[in-house]
Design goal:
Pnp Oxidase, Chain A, alpha+beta, 7-stranded antiparallel beta sheet, about 40% strand
Length: about 160
């Protein structure tokens, strides 16, 4: 694994919070694996850990919301990355509104979109969700929170 570590240790992707709502439940988590995956039509892929409570809710969701955070929003990243949604109502401690499909849109996010789930790709310990955006919002300025600024957040979900 030395080669893999040498490669991945150099990465510093933007972090995002993904929220889902289905079957009367809401969930959200901090995610580092996401990217635009198509230009026409615009599509994104987000990968959720199968160990994460949000994954359980997202499996039944038709829409997911993806939120970018500014560096100054470390507390919001810590809430969604360091707390387990099975034990904590994260949304009681964050400003949010209902978006398409009932998905929770975080009102303080630097930028966000809600997308329909086009398909799911299972691979390894994460499942990829292909999203086609249907609604956008947010600001265009500010420095986005990146992985290196979030390394101090201990995952809130159980780790095997």
């Amino acid at each position: 694994m030395d080669g893999a570590d040498a490669f991945t240790d150099r990465l510093n992707p933007q972090m995002c919070v993904v929220t889902a709502a289905a079957e009367g439940r809401r969930a959200g988590c901090l995610v580092g694996f996401f990217s635009q995956c198509s230009i026409r039509p615009v599509r994104f892929m987000v990968w959720l850990s199968t160990a994460n409570h949000t994954y359980e809710v997202a499996r039944a969701a038709d829409f997911l919301a993806v939120h970018l955070l500014d560096r100054e929003q470390h507390d919001l990243a810590e809430l969604f990355g360091g707390e387990c949604g099975a034990r904590t109502d994260k949304f009681a401690r964050a400003r949010w509104r209902s978006g398409p499909g009932g998905t929770a849109v975080l009102e303080d996010a630097a930028a966000w979109f809600v997308g329909t789930v086009g398909r799911r790709v299972e691979d390894g310990d994460h499942v990829g969700f292909v999203l086609e955006p249907v609604e956008w919002g947010g600001r265009t300025e500010g420095h986005l929170l990146r992985l290196r600024e979030a390394l101090d957040i201990a995952p809130g979900h159980p780790v095997d």
